[in-house]
Amino acid sequence: MFEIAMMQDLKRVHDTTLLSKNKVYQINGRLYKFLYQDPYSRIGFEQYIFEPLNGQKLRADLKLNRNKVTRNVYELPGIKANSTVNQNHFQMNLF
Q1: Got the DSSP string for 48-71?
Q2: Across residues 51-73, what is the average pLDDT?
Q3: Whole-structure pTM over 0.85, yes or no?
Q4: Which of 13, 26, 34, 80 has the smallest count of CB within 10 Å of its CB?
């Protein structure tokens, strides 16, 4: 029943600037959250990184270009992605 409701409320992502880290997206039938735009991608050939939500078999991050995002990514309105911070990871700065 929950899947049927989600399928009816899908919104296609037409603009990549509207991607948000707090929203949940469906790509090829699986649920993902947006992580970031690849900083090493060329201008005009941007790539976007998505991470699968917990509880799914798929564990690998997904890298899509702008055209694939506008064709295959659907937003699930009303559903938020909860981000968790792992206390075992520290960011190190090099001077």
Answers
A1: EEEEEPTTSS--S-EEEEHHHHHH
A2: 91
A3: no
A4: 80
